[in-house]
Specification:
Blueprint: H1 2-8, H2 13-40, H3 47-60, E1 65-72, E2 77-83, H4 100-114, E3 118-124, E4 133-139
Antiparallel strand pairs: 1-2, 2-4, 3-4
The protein binds zinc ion.
Length: 141
């Protein structure tokens, strides 16, 4: 099924391998996000408080500086930026998004807070010519 989708997207073997690697990195980030939640953010049920603490943690871990751009929990859409992202800051514009780990991290950390499945996609990236990395998270029902 997955191969069929990749074939339909016109991906070659190399791109296919890269896509798989990216997905694995994303899943690792997601697992780490969940662990960060469990280790440091258990019992916080206010989103602002959660984000404030999370910001400190991500700065301390040198992941980057998190900013919530918008959070519409009713629609299940959360948009965040990460400035000085550890993966891509200083990277030249290579015309690609490369921060799959951070995307997974955002998804995992939000999943822990919301106790619902969350998927995050990187929509801005320093490696794609943007000044920050941006992630759009979607909460699944
Ligand atoms: Zn990036």
């Amino acid at each position: 099924m997955e191969n069929l989708i990749l074939a339909q997207l016109g991906m070659g073997k190399e791109e296919e391998n890269q896509a798989k690697a990216n997905e694995n990195i994303y899943l690792v980030g997601k697992a780490v996000g969940g662990e960060i939640g469990r280790a440091f953010l258990s019992g916080i049920d206010d989103l602002n408080e959660y984000v404030t603490k999370l910001k400190e943690i991500l700065i301390n871990l040198k992941v980057g500086v998190l900013k919530v751009v918008s959070a519409d929990l009713e629609k299940g859409k959360i948009v965040v930026d990460i400035e000085e992202c550890v993966t891509c800051v200083g990277t030249p514009n290579i015309g690609r998004h490369i921060c799959y780990f951070e995307g997974g991290l955002v998804a995992g950390i939000l999943k822990f807070f919301l106790k619902k499945e969350v998927a995050a996609v990187e929509v801005k990236c320093c490696a794609n010519g943007d000044s920050v990395c941006g992630f759009e998270a979607t909460v699944k029902e």
